[in-house]
Amino acid sequence: MSLTSYDDFLKENKISTNQQQLNMLKKVGSKVSSAVELYLKNNGFESYIENFKWEFNLVENDVPNAWCMPGGKVVFYTGILPLTQNEAGMAVVMGHEIAHAVARHGNERMSHGLIVQLGGVALSEAIKDKPEETQALFATAYGVGSQVGVMLPFSRTHEYEADKMGLIFMAMAGYAPNEAVEFWKRMAQQGGSKPPEFLSTHPVDSKRIAALQEIMPEALKYYNLNN
């Protein structure tokens, strides 16, 4: 489903022709994904990404969003670049979204959606009997498309887990993890009366930023070891 959805998405959306931005995305993606592989290898979790074939794409879309599908398919929307601002900011989002995929948080949302929206049928049955509904559910679970506001929110536990893993991944990739706090502050400032779609599934508040600062010393150890 991931490969099909990814291919369909790329056919239906305009790939950015900004070579400088695309090169930066692929550079950050290469460094962060290598760090992910090393981290998982060092901790005995290589099997988590044994079928991953990393790809990084940038699409023209004003929505501030990014996602990583199972299999290591990562897409950034141009709308999030004013908030990432630089390589380190891009690494924050890259590490966080890859962490969701590695920890299989989207899979859990997909399973929950099968229960709530399709009556608890097995995935194989859902694909066979209700292919369109199942494909739409997949998009909802993984944040594919531009209607991120209808996406099933990650739980607070999932968010904290992705934050922690993402900090470690970016630190191992050579990016200062402190940038994560600055990025999420920028995201929070974008809120106003109608927060960006990305925030509807990635809640930002003082508790989250405090939690990031709490785990920062551990992330800095990885950063200092690799720099």
Structure description:
The protein has one domain (2-106, 150-225). Helices cover 62% and strands 6% of the residues. The protein has helices spanning 2-12, 19-42, 81-84, 87-102, 105-118, 123-129, 131-142, 156-172, 179-189, 197-201, 206-225, and strands at residues 55-59, 66-69, 73-77. It has a 3-stranded mixed beta sheet, sandwiched between helices. The termini are far apart. The model is unreliable at 146-151 (pLDDT under 50).
Which class of secondary structure composition applies to the elements?
mainly alpha
Low-confidence regions: 146-151
Helix and strand sequence: HHEEEHHHHHHHHH
**Major beta sheet, specifics?**
3 strands, mixed
Basic shape: globular
Mean pLDDT level: 81
Write the layout of secondary structure elements.
Blueprint: H1 2-12, H2 19-42, E1 55-59, E2 66-69, E3 73-77, H3 81-84, H4 87-102, H5 105-118, H6 123-129, H7 131-142, H8 156-172, H9 179-189, H10 197-201, H11 206-225
Parallel strand pairs: 1-3
Antiparallel strand pairs: 2-3
Helix pairs in contact: 2-4, 4-8, 4-9, 5-7, 6-7, 8-11
List keywords for this structure.
227 residues, 62% helix, single chain, 6% strand
Summarize this entry quickly.
The protein is mostly helical and 227 residues long. The protein is 62% helix and 6% strand. It is built from eleven helices and three strands; from the N terminus they run ααβββααααααααα.
